[in-house]
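step: validate -> pass
step: tokenize input -> pass
step: predict -> running
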Amino acid sequence: MKQLSGLLTAALLLLLQVGGAFAQSSDFETIESFKKQQQSLLESVKAVQDPGQLGVLDDEIVRLEGSSAQHRKLLDEGLYPQSLESAIAALRDQLKKSTERLALAEESKKDKAKIEEVTKKTELAEKKIEVITKQNEGYRASVDKLTHDVQDLSARIERLSVENTGLQGQIQALQLQGRKDKKSIAQLKELTEKLTANVRDRDELIVKLMDSLFDEYAKAGLTDMQKKSLLPVVQGNDYVSKIVATLDGNISYLATALLTPQDVRLLTTQQRNLSAKWEELKPSISKLYPDEPTRVRDITTVDGRLSDLKKSIAAATWRSVHQVFAGQNIAIDPFRNAGEFHARLLAYLDEQVKNPSREKYQLFRHKVWDSPVKDQWLPVIPTDELTEKQRADIEERIALWDKNVTALLWRWVLIGVAAAAVIAIAAAMLLRKKKPAPAA
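step: predict -> pass
step: emit ->
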């Protein structure tokens, strides 16, 4: 019995020793596990670079604190001279430092981005200033060139205007003399051709003058102030007055001029070009005027002169066509437009149909109508002015005149044949009477 009791005591002591060793081993692992987790977490907090991970790390600290709370006493002893509270506080302190560090880094990035943005804006502003400076320099050079071009063109236009006035005076003097000798006719023709060429050249210069301003005004990028600064150039060079003076000169020239079909083509083309260029330029010119009354006056004046020029070309055309008839002494009253031309020519042709004359017909047909009227003049007259119907009316009357002349010719031919036959019969009878009787 005593022996059994001793064995039980020895076994109990052995169990107590094993249990104590096991407990000591478990406590050590708990302390070491905490130390490892705390150290790993501390390093992660120190090394963190992403502000988005700060919240995750804070949650990890809270989790570690919560899971270690039941071992507080053990950990306080095992971590001495630290404690569980100081270890967790160290983590939180480091988390705060890392949060501040990342905040400073983020602020630095923002500052850097702001600096870069401001730098770019500054560079862009400097480039824009440089571009504007170059534009202004180019603009000033363009305005200087425009002023010079306008002055040069104006001087050339003025010289032509003076020369044209002299030519018109010489032409009128020759016309008043009424001389028909070869020398006078040749001189008149030469002066007239020179005057027509001068008028054409002056119109071309005016188009260039208009182009010079329009091209400058239409440049892309000009500011409103720059466009307004063109007004002194226009006003200083009396731009609109030069256009009006040129148109007045053309209208004056056309008041007495006798044109060729080629002249009409050229003058009509130039008139259309002038009108088109003016319509193109007018909106730009209108914006240059500082006051409405001046703008309306100048724009209306040029519009009116261009309309008068078109009418003057038409009047000179019909006057020149009438001269073709007058030059062959064909008695047709003057006509000023297509309607009068149609009516008076039909009246003349109707009279000729009633009293056909082969000589008059041949003169009219071959010296006037077929050429130059039909083949040269009619092509330069628009069909909306002298219609196809009116042209057909004239051709029908000429064809009827031709028919009557032909009928009259055949009548005379028949009369001639009949007369010849009568004469032949009479002659035969006379010969028969004079013929001696045969011998018995």
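step: describe -> Residues 7 and 150 are 136 Å apart (CA to CA).
step: cleanup -> pass
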